[in-house]
Specification:
The complex is a heterodimer. Chain A is mostly helical. Chain A has one domain. Chain A is built from 11 helices and no strands. The longest helix of chain A is centred in the middle third of the chain and has 31 residues. Chain B folds into 2 domains: 143 residues, Rossmann fold (3-Layer(aba) Sandwich); 39 residues, no CATH class. Helix content of chain B is 36%, strand content 26%. Chain B has 9 helices and 9 strands. Chain B is globular and about 50 Å long. Chain B starts with a strand and ends with a helix. Classes of the chains: A mainly alpha, B alpha/beta. Chains A and B meet through helix 1 and helix 5 of A and helix 2 and helix 3 of B.
Protein backbone atom coordinates (compact mmCIF):
# COMPACT_ATOMS: atom_id res chain seq x y z
CA UNK A 1 0.00 0.00 0.00
CA UNK A 2 2.75 2.43 0.99
CA UNK A 3 4.74 1.19 -1.98
CA UNK A 4 1.78 1.86 -4.25
CA UNK A 5 1.41 5.44 -2.96
CA UNK A 6 4.99 6.21 -3.91
CA UNK A 7 4.68 4.39 -7.21
CA UNK A 8 1.62 6.44 -8.13
CA UNK A 9 3.48 9.71 -7.58
CA UNK A 10 6.48 8.55 -9.62
CA UNK A 11 4.23 7.34 -12.44
CA UNK A 12 2.55 10.76 -12.55
CA UNK A 13 5.97 12.42 -12.78
CA UNK A 14 6.79 10.29 -15.82
CA UNK A 15 3.52 11.25 -17.45
CA UNK A 16 4.42 14.89 -16.91
CA UNK A 17 7.78 14.67 -18.62
CA UNK A 18 7.64 15.98 -22.21
CA UNK A 19 10.69 13.91 -23.19
CA UNK A 20 9.02 10.70 -22.11
CA UNK A 21 5.78 11.53 -23.93
CA UNK A 22 7.57 12.54 -27.12
CA UNK A 23 10.21 9.83 -27.38
CA UNK A 24 8.50 6.95 -25.61
CA UNK A 25 4.90 7.34 -26.76
CA UNK A 26 5.03 9.69 -29.75
CA UNK A 27 8.01 8.65 -31.81
CA UNK A 28 7.21 4.96 -32.41
CA UNK A 29 3.66 5.88 -33.37
CA UNK A 30 4.78 8.53 -35.85
CA UNK A 31 7.32 6.22 -37.47
CA UNK A 32 4.71 3.44 -37.73
CA UNK A 33 2.25 5.76 -39.42
CA UNK A 34 4.89 7.07 -41.85
CA UNK A 35 6.20 3.63 -42.80
CA UNK A 36 2.70 2.22 -43.17
CA UNK A 37 1.59 5.07 -45.41
CA UNK A 38 4.75 4.96 -47.53
CA UNK A 39 5.42 1.24 -47.89
CA UNK A 40 3.09 -0.68 -45.60
CA UNK A 41 2.37 -3.75 -47.70
CA UNK A 42 5.60 -4.02 -49.69
CA UNK A 43 7.93 -6.79 -48.68
CA UNK A 44 10.95 -5.57 -46.72
CA UNK A 45 14.08 -7.05 -48.35
CA UNK A 46 13.77 -10.82 -48.57
CA UNK A 47 12.57 -11.20 -45.02
CA UNK A 48 9.11 -12.53 -45.66
CA UNK A 49 7.88 -9.56 -43.62
CA UNK A 50 6.00 -6.61 -45.04
CA UNK A 51 7.26 -3.21 -43.98
CA UNK A 52 4.23 -2.88 -41.75
CA UNK A 53 4.70 -6.18 -39.95
CA UNK A 54 8.47 -5.72 -39.66
CA UNK A 55 8.12 -2.18 -38.41
CA UNK A 56 5.40 -3.05 -35.93
CA UNK A 57 7.68 -5.58 -34.26
CA UNK A 58 10.70 -3.29 -34.31
CA UNK A 59 8.76 -0.25 -33.09
CA UNK A 60 7.22 -2.25 -30.26
CA UNK A 61 10.71 -2.16 -28.71
CA UNK A 62 11.21 1.62 -28.98
CA UNK A 63 9.32 2.14 -25.72
CA UNK A 64 11.66 -0.39 -24.09
CA UNK A 65 14.66 1.39 -25.54
CA UNK A 66 13.52 4.83 -24.33
CA UNK A 67 12.67 3.58 -20.86
CA UNK A 68 15.80 1.49 -20.46
CA UNK A 69 18.40 3.87 -21.84
CA UNK A 70 16.84 7.27 -21.12
CA UNK A 71 14.21 7.26 -18.35
CA UNK A 72 15.85 4.82 -15.95
CA UNK A 73 19.45 6.09 -16.00
CA UNK A 74 18.44 9.75 -16.20
CA UNK A 75 16.00 9.66 -13.30
CA UNK A 76 18.23 7.54 -11.08
CA UNK A 77 21.40 9.52 -11.65
CA UNK A 78 19.50 12.78 -11.17
CA UNK A 79 17.93 11.54 -7.95
CA UNK A 80 21.36 10.62 -6.73
CA UNK A 81 23.03 13.91 -7.66
CA UNK A 82 20.11 16.01 -6.36
CA UNK A 83 20.27 14.30 -2.98
CA UNK A 84 16.83 12.69 -3.25
CA UNK A 85 18.29 9.23 -2.61
CA UNK A 86 20.32 10.58 0.29
CA UNK A 87 17.21 12.12 1.79
CA UNK A 88 15.31 8.85 1.35
CA UNK A 89 18.15 7.04 3.08
CA UNK A 90 17.34 9.16 6.15
CA UNK A 91 13.99 7.44 6.56
CA UNK A 92 12.90 4.02 7.77
CA UNK A 93 12.66 3.05 4.11
CA UNK A 94 15.43 2.11 1.74
CA UNK A 95 16.16 4.30 -1.30
CA UNK A 96 15.80 1.04 -3.21
CA UNK A 97 12.04 1.46 -2.94
CA UNK A 98 12.23 4.65 -4.96
CA UNK A 99 14.38 2.90 -7.56
CA UNK A 100 11.91 0.04 -7.76
CA UNK A 101 9.00 2.47 -8.21
CA UNK A 102 10.86 4.26 -10.99
CA UNK A 103 11.77 1.07 -12.77
CA UNK A 104 8.19 -0.15 -12.66
CA UNK A 105 6.94 3.26 -13.82
CA UNK A 106 9.39 3.11 -16.75
CA UNK A 107 8.16 -0.39 -17.58
CA UNK A 108 4.56 0.81 -17.54
CA UNK A 109 5.49 3.60 -19.98
CA UNK A 110 7.00 1.02 -22.35
CA UNK A 111 3.83 -1.10 -22.06
CA UNK A 112 1.60 1.90 -22.77
CA UNK A 113 3.78 2.86 -25.75
CA UNK A 114 3.48 -0.64 -27.21
CA UNK A 115 -0.24 -0.83 -26.56
CA UNK A 116 -0.90 2.41 -28.41
CA UNK A 117 1.24 1.12 -31.24
CA UNK A 118 -0.55 -2.24 -31.34
CA UNK A 119 -4.00 -0.69 -31.40
CA UNK A 120 -2.97 1.63 -34.24
CA UNK A 121 -1.34 -1.16 -36.26
CA UNK A 122 -4.25 -3.57 -35.83
CA UNK A 123 -7.20 -1.24 -36.20
CA UNK A 124 -5.91 1.37 -38.62
CA UNK A 125 -3.46 -0.55 -40.76
CA UNK A 126 -4.93 -4.05 -40.56
CA UNK A 127 -1.86 -5.69 -39.01
CA UNK A 128 -2.33 -9.32 -37.95
CA UNK A 129 0.33 -11.38 -36.20
CA UNK A 130 0.91 -14.83 -37.69
CA UNK A 131 2.70 -16.20 -34.64
CA UNK A 132 1.54 -16.80 -31.09
CA UNK A 133 0.65 -13.52 -29.40
CA UNK A 134 1.19 -14.86 -25.89
CA UNK A 135 4.66 -16.09 -26.78
CA UNK A 136 5.35 -12.70 -28.34
CA UNK A 137 4.35 -10.97 -25.08
CA UNK A 138 6.70 -13.22 -23.11
CA UNK A 139 9.59 -12.51 -25.46
CA UNK A 140 8.79 -8.80 -25.32
CA UNK A 141 8.86 -8.85 -21.53
CA UNK A 142 12.13 -10.76 -21.54
CA UNK A 143 13.60 -8.17 -23.92
CA UNK A 144 12.36 -5.39 -21.62
CA UNK A 145 13.81 -6.94 -18.47
CA UNK A 146 17.10 -7.54 -20.22
CA UNK A 147 17.35 -3.95 -21.56
CA UNK A 148 16.29 -2.55 -18.17
CA UNK A 149 19.14 -4.43 -16.51
CA UNK A 150 21.53 -2.67 -18.90
CA UNK A 151 19.92 0.69 -18.04
CA UNK A 152 20.20 0.01 -14.31
CA UNK A 153 23.82 -0.95 -14.76
CA UNK A 154 24.49 2.36 -16.52
CA UNK A 155 22.74 4.19 -13.65
CA UNK A 156 24.93 2.40 -11.12
CA UNK A 157 28.19 2.89 -12.97
CA UNK A 158 27.76 6.55 -13.93
CA UNK A 159 28.57 8.76 -10.96
CA UNK A 160 27.68 12.10 -12.50
CA UNK A 161 24.90 13.48 -14.67
CA UNK A 162 27.47 14.44 -17.28
CA UNK A 163 29.02 10.99 -17.66
CA UNK A 164 25.57 9.44 -17.66
CA UNK A 165 24.46 11.75 -20.49
CA UNK A 166 27.44 10.72 -22.59
CA UNK A 167 26.98 7.01 -21.92
CA UNK A 168 23.22 7.00 -22.51
CA UNK A 169 23.66 8.88 -25.79
CA UNK A 170 26.30 6.36 -26.85
CA UNK A 171 24.00 3.48 -26.00
CA UNK A 172 20.59 4.92 -26.79
CA UNK A 173 21.07 6.30 -30.30
CA UNK A 174 22.95 3.34 -31.79
CA UNK A 175 20.39 0.97 -30.25
CA UNK A 176 17.56 3.08 -31.58
CA UNK A 177 18.85 3.48 -35.15
CA UNK A 178 21.13 0.51 -35.79
CA UNK A 179 19.28 -2.29 -34.05
CA UNK A 180 16.40 -1.93 -36.49
CA UNK A 181 14.07 -0.45 -33.92
CA UNK A 182 13.19 2.57 -36.04
CA UNK A 183 14.86 2.14 -39.44
CA UNK A 184 13.91 -1.34 -40.67
CA UNK A 185 16.96 -3.61 -40.47
CA UNK A 186 15.73 -5.40 -43.60
CA UNK A 187 16.88 -2.51 -45.75
CA UNK A 188 20.31 -2.22 -44.07
CA UNK A 189 23.42 -3.10 -46.10
CA UNK A 190 24.94 -6.48 -45.20
CA UNK A 191 27.66 -5.10 -42.88
CA UNK A 192 25.24 -2.99 -40.91
CA UNK A 193 22.96 -6.01 -40.55
CA UNK A 194 25.74 -7.88 -38.80
CA UNK A 195 26.15 -4.96 -36.42
CA UNK A 196 22.43 -4.78 -35.70
CA UNK A 197 22.32 -8.53 -35.05
CA UNK A 198 24.87 -8.28 -32.27
CA UNK A 199 23.33 -5.27 -30.47
CA UNK A 200 21.40 -6.51 -27.42
CA UNK A 201 18.22 -4.81 -28.60
CA UNK A 202 18.82 -6.30 -32.08
CA UNK A 203 18.88 -9.77 -30.55
CA UNK A 204 15.51 -9.07 -28.93
CA UNK A 205 14.05 -7.64 -32.14
CA UNK A 206 15.15 -10.65 -34.21
CA UNK A 207 13.61 -12.99 -31.67
CA UNK A 208 10.36 -11.01 -31.72
CA UNK A 209 10.30 -10.96 -35.54
CA UNK A 210 10.67 -14.73 -35.67
CA UNK A 211 7.88 -15.25 -33.19
CA UNK A 212 5.63 -12.80 -35.00
CA UNK A 213 6.07 -14.92 -38.14
CA UNK A 214 5.47 -18.18 -36.31
CA UNK A 215 9.10 -19.34 -36.56
CA UNK A 216 9.83 -21.05 -33.25
CA UNK A 217 12.80 -23.29 -34.01
CA UNK A 218 15.62 -20.80 -33.39
CA UNK A 219 14.50 -19.12 -30.19
CA UNK A 220 16.92 -20.81 -27.83
CA UNK A 221 20.07 -18.81 -28.57
CA UNK A 222 18.51 -15.29 -28.37
CA UNK A 223 16.55 -16.23 -25.25
CA UNK A 224 19.72 -17.49 -23.59
CA UNK A 225 21.66 -14.38 -24.66
CA UNK A 226 18.97 -12.07 -23.23
CA UNK A 227 18.94 -14.02 -19.98
CA UNK A 228 22.72 -13.89 -19.68
CA UNK A 229 22.63 -10.13 -20.26
CA UNK A 230 19.99 -9.80 -17.53
CA UNK A 231 21.94 -11.83 -15.00
CA UNK A 232 25.28 -10.12 -15.61
CA UNK A 233 23.97 -6.55 -15.78
CA UNK A 234 21.68 -6.95 -12.76
CA UNK A 235 24.58 -8.36 -10.79
CA UNK A 236 26.89 -5.50 -11.76
CA UNK A 237 24.25 -2.85 -11.06
CA UNK A 238 23.47 -4.23 -7.60
CA UNK A 239 27.16 -4.62 -6.74
CA UNK A 240 28.17 -1.16 -7.88
CA UNK A 241 25.07 0.76 -6.75
CA UNK A 242 25.70 3.84 -4.58
CA UNK A 243 22.93 5.98 -3.23
CA UNK A 244 25.38 8.86 -2.88
CA UNK B 1 17.18 14.40 35.59
CA UNK B 2 17.11 15.11 31.89
CA UNK B 3 17.30 12.30 29.44
CA UNK B 4 19.75 12.60 26.60
CA UNK B 5 18.41 12.47 23.07
CA UNK B 6 21.84 12.49 21.44
CA UNK B 7 25.23 11.69 22.90
CA UNK B 8 28.38 12.32 20.89
CA UNK B 9 31.67 11.10 22.29
CA UNK B 10 35.14 11.82 20.91
CA UNK B 11 33.94 11.82 17.33
CA UNK B 12 36.62 12.03 14.64
CA UNK B 13 36.50 12.14 10.88
CA UNK B 14 39.17 12.99 8.34
CA UNK B 15 38.96 13.32 4.57
CA UNK B 16 42.43 12.43 3.40
CA UNK B 17 44.77 14.31 5.68
CA UNK B 18 42.29 17.03 6.58
CA UNK B 19 40.53 16.51 9.91
CA UNK B 20 36.94 17.66 9.50
CA UNK B 21 35.64 16.54 12.89
CA UNK B 22 38.22 16.52 15.66
CA UNK B 23 37.59 14.82 19.01
CA UNK B 24 34.10 16.28 19.28
CA UNK B 25 31.85 15.51 22.27
CA UNK B 26 28.50 16.95 23.33
CA UNK B 27 25.09 15.92 24.60
CA UNK B 28 21.65 17.00 23.48
CA UNK B 29 18.87 16.70 26.05
CA UNK B 30 15.36 15.68 25.17
CA UNK B 31 13.09 18.61 24.42
CA UNK B 32 15.80 21.21 23.92
CA UNK B 33 16.90 23.15 20.89
CA UNK B 34 20.56 22.47 20.35
CA UNK B 35 22.62 24.60 17.99
CA UNK B 36 25.85 23.45 16.41
CA UNK B 37 27.51 26.67 15.35
CA UNK B 38 30.50 27.48 13.25
CA UNK B 39 31.56 29.16 10.03
CA UNK B 40 31.14 27.60 6.62
CA UNK B 41 33.20 24.46 6.38
CA UNK B 42 33.64 24.09 10.14
CA UNK B 43 32.40 20.51 10.01
CA UNK B 44 28.75 21.01 10.99
CA UNK B 45 27.20 19.01 8.17
CA UNK B 46 29.79 16.26 8.51
CA UNK B 47 28.94 15.98 12.22
CA UNK B 48 25.28 15.54 11.28
CA UNK B 49 26.25 12.92 8.68
CA UNK B 50 28.19 11.02 11.34
CA UNK B 51 25.35 11.15 13.87
CA UNK B 52 22.85 10.00 11.24
CA UNK B 53 25.10 7.20 10.06
CA UNK B 54 25.45 8.70 6.56
CA UNK B 55 29.21 8.64 6.99
CA UNK B 56 31.33 6.36 9.10
CA UNK B 57 33.34 7.93 11.92
CA UNK B 58 37.07 7.19 12.12
CA UNK B 59 36.97 7.29 15.91
CA UNK B 60 34.48 7.83 18.72
CA UNK B 61 30.78 7.14 18.74
CA UNK B 62 27.42 8.78 18.60
CA UNK B 63 24.21 7.52 20.11
CA UNK B 64 20.81 8.79 19.12
CA UNK B 65 17.77 7.80 21.20
CA UNK B 66 19.95 5.11 22.69
CA UNK B 67 20.81 3.62 19.29
CA UNK B 68 23.50 3.70 16.66
CA UNK B 69 21.96 5.18 13.50
CA UNK B 70 24.16 3.22 11.13
CA UNK B 71 23.18 -0.09 12.76
CA UNK B 72 19.54 0.55 13.66
CA UNK B 73 18.69 2.71 10.67
CA UNK B 74 15.02 1.74 10.44
CA UNK B 75 14.26 2.13 14.14
CA UNK B 76 16.15 5.44 14.35
CA UNK B 77 14.52 7.04 11.35
CA UNK B 78 11.00 6.09 12.43
CA UNK B 79 11.66 8.56 15.27
CA UNK B 80 14.05 11.07 13.71
CA UNK B 81 13.20 13.57 10.97
CA UNK B 82 15.77 15.35 8.85
CA UNK B 83 16.15 18.36 6.62
CA UNK B 84 19.45 18.09 4.83
CA UNK B 85 21.34 20.88 3.22
CA UNK B 86 20.77 21.17 -0.52
CA UNK B 87 18.23 18.43 -0.98
CA UNK B 88 16.43 19.07 -4.21
CA UNK B 89 13.09 17.60 -5.11
CA UNK B 90 12.02 15.86 -8.29
CA UNK B 91 11.64 18.45 -11.01
CA UNK B 92 7.90 18.29 -11.62
CA UNK B 93 6.64 17.11 -8.23
CA UNK B 94 3.91 19.10 -6.47
CA UNK B 95 3.82 20.00 -2.77
CA UNK B 96 1.05 17.49 -2.14
CA UNK B 97 2.82 14.71 -4.05
CA UNK B 98 6.04 15.30 -2.15
CA UNK B 99 4.07 14.96 1.09
CA UNK B 100 2.45 11.73 -0.09
CA UNK B 101 5.77 10.34 -1.25
CA UNK B 102 7.66 11.18 1.95
CA UNK B 103 4.69 10.14 4.09
CA UNK B 104 4.72 6.74 2.42
CA UNK B 105 8.15 6.13 3.94
CA UNK B 106 6.75 5.89 7.47
CA UNK B 107 4.66 3.36 9.29
CA UNK B 108 2.54 6.03 10.92
CA UNK B 109 2.75 9.22 8.91
CA UNK B 110 1.26 12.49 10.11
CA UNK B 111 -1.69 14.05 8.31
CA UNK B 112 0.09 16.18 5.73
CA UNK B 113 -2.88 18.49 5.21
CA UNK B 114 -2.76 19.41 8.88
CA UNK B 115 0.99 20.04 8.69
CA UNK B 116 0.65 22.16 5.55
CA UNK B 117 -2.03 24.23 7.26
CA UNK B 118 0.19 24.69 10.28
CA UNK B 119 2.96 26.04 8.05
CA UNK B 120 0.67 28.14 5.89
CA UNK B 121 1.24 26.08 2.77
CA UNK B 122 -2.31 24.84 2.20
CA UNK B 123 -2.88 27.03 -0.80
CA UNK B 124 0.30 25.81 -2.45
CA UNK B 125 -0.66 22.13 -2.27
CA UNK B 126 -1.04 21.78 -6.03
CA UNK B 127 1.94 23.99 -6.88
CA UNK B 128 5.13 22.51 -8.15
CA UNK B 129 7.92 22.49 -5.60
CA UNK B 130 10.25 24.03 -8.19
CA UNK B 131 7.96 27.10 -8.36
CA UNK B 132 8.06 27.81 -4.61
CA UNK B 133 10.02 30.69 -3.12
CA UNK B 134 13.06 29.92 -0.96
CA UNK B 135 11.12 30.39 2.28
CA UNK B 136 8.21 28.26 1.12
CA UNK B 137 10.54 25.50 0.06
CA UNK B 138 12.31 25.50 3.42
CA UNK B 139 8.98 25.36 5.20
CA UNK B 140 8.09 22.38 3.02
CA UNK B 141 11.39 20.78 4.04
CA UNK B 142 10.32 21.16 7.68
CA UNK B 143 6.92 19.66 6.88
CA UNK B 144 8.65 16.69 5.24
CA UNK B 145 11.02 16.36 8.20
CA UNK B 146 7.98 16.23 10.51
CA UNK B 147 5.87 13.91 8.41
CA UNK B 148 6.95 10.79 10.31
CA UNK B 149 5.93 12.29 13.70
CA UNK B 150 9.56 12.39 14.90
CA UNK B 151 10.89 12.99 18.40
CA UNK B 152 14.02 14.68 17.10
CA UNK B 153 14.50 16.79 13.96
CA UNK B 154 17.79 17.73 12.35
CA UNK B 155 17.76 21.02 10.52
CA UNK B 156 20.93 21.73 8.60
CA UNK B 157 21.43 25.37 7.59
CA UNK B 158 17.69 25.74 7.33
CA UNK B 159 17.60 29.48 6.86
CA UNK B 160 20.70 30.03 4.75
CA UNK B 161 19.78 32.06 1.69
CA UNK B 162 16.45 33.25 3.04
CA UNK B 163 15.49 36.88 3.38
CA UNK B 164 14.90 38.39 6.83
CA UNK B 165 11.16 38.05 6.68
CA UNK B 166 11.20 34.40 5.60
CA UNK B 167 13.82 33.63 8.22
CA UNK B 168 11.70 35.17 10.99
CA UNK B 169 8.73 33.15 9.83
CA UNK B 170 10.73 29.94 9.95
CA UNK B 171 11.86 30.87 13.47
CA UNK B 172 8.26 31.29 14.57
CA UNK B 173 7.36 27.84 13.33
CA UNK B 174 10.39 26.31 15.03
CA UNK B 175 9.41 27.92 18.33
CA UNK B 176 5.97 26.37 18.04
CA UNK B 177 7.58 22.98 17.50
CA UNK B 178 9.78 23.45 20.51
CA UNK B 179 6.77 24.30 22.64
CA UNK B 180 5.32 20.95 21.64
CA UNK B 181 8.34 19.21 23.15
CA UNK B 182 10.21 18.36 19.99
CA UNK B 183 13.98 18.04 20.27
CA UNK B 184 15.62 20.16 17.61
CA UNK B 185 19.22 19.85 16.44
CA UNK B 186 20.11 22.71 14.16
CA UNK B 187 23.21 24.05 12.52
CA UNK B 188 23.61 27.63 11.49
CA UNK B 189 26.22 30.29 10.99
CA UNK B 190 23.80 33.05 11.96
CA UNK B 191 24.44 33.83 15.62
CA UNK B 192 21.29 35.91 15.85
CA UNK B 193 19.35 32.81 14.89
CA UNK B 194 21.05 30.68 17.51
CA UNK B 195 20.38 33.36 20.11
CA UNK B 196 16.70 33.48 19.20
CA UNK B 197 16.11 29.74 19.13
CA UNK B 198 18.68 27.69 20.99
CA UNK B 199 18.73 26.57 24.61
CA UNK B 200 22.15 25.12 24.29
CA UNK B 201 24.89 25.72 21.74
CA UNK B 202 28.21 24.25 20.81
CA UNK B 203 30.60 26.37 18.78
CA UNK B 204 33.07 24.48 16.62
CA UNK B 205 36.03 25.54 14.54
CA UNK B 206 37.80 23.25 12.09
CA UNK B 207 35.90 20.35 13.60
CA UNK B 208 37.05 21.13 17.17
CA UNK B 209 34.87 22.30 20.01
CA UNK B 210 35.64 25.87 21.03
CA UNK B 211 33.01 26.39 23.68
CA UNK B 212 29.73 24.84 24.77
CA UNK B 213 26.90 25.92 27.07
CA UNK B 214 23.69 27.88 27.25
CA UNK B 215 23.54 31.05 25.20
CA UNK B 216 23.46 33.15 28.40
CA UNK B 217 26.51 31.41 29.87
CA UNK B 218 28.55 31.83 26.72
CA UNK B 219 27.68 35.52 26.42
CA UNK B 220 28.39 36.16 30.14
CA UNK B 221 31.62 34.23 30.28
CA UNK B 222 32.99 36.09 27.27
CA UNK B 223 31.92 39.43 28.78
CA UNK B 224 30.40 40.43 25.45
CA UNK B 225 26.93 41.83 24.85
CA UNK B 226 25.52 39.21 22.50
CA UNK B 227 26.23 35.82 21.02
CA UNK B 228 27.65 37.22 17.81
CA UNK B 229 30.31 39.17 19.68
CA UNK B 230 30.93 36.22 21.97
CA UNK B 231 31.35 34.01 18.90
CA UNK B 232 33.92 36.36 17.40
CA UNK B 233 35.63 36.66 20.78
CA UNK B 234 36.05 32.87 21.06
CA UNK B 235 37.07 32.50 17.45
CA UNK B 236 39.85 35.03 17.84
CA UNK B 237 40.97 33.60 21.12
CA UNK B 238 41.58 30.38 19.28
CA UNK B 239 43.82 32.00 16.71
Amino acid sequence: MRFFKMYKVEQKLFMRSPDVILFNLGMPLIVLILISLIAGNKEAGNSGLTFLSGSYVALSTVGICCSAFMSIPISLVEYRSQGVLRRMYCSPCSPVRLLACDTIASGVMAVISTMILSVTAVFFFGYRMEGNVLLYIFAWLLTMISMFSIGLMIASLCRTVKSMNVVTSLVYFPMLFFSGATVPAEIFPEKLRVFSDILPLGVGINLLKDISLGIYDRMLIPVVILMIITVICSFVSVKTFRWE
Amino acid sequence: MYENAIVVENLEKAFGKRKVVDNLSFKVRKGEVFGLLGHNGAGKSTTIDLILGLKKADEGRSVILGMNAAVNRKAVFERVGVQLQQTKYQSSITVEEACIEYGSLYEKAADHEELLRQFGLTELQKSMVSKLSGGERQKLSIVLALIGNPEIVFLDELTTGLDVEARREVWRTLKQLKDKGLTIFLTTHYMEEAEALCDHVCIIKSGKKVVEGTVADIVNNSKQKNLEDAYLFYMEEEL
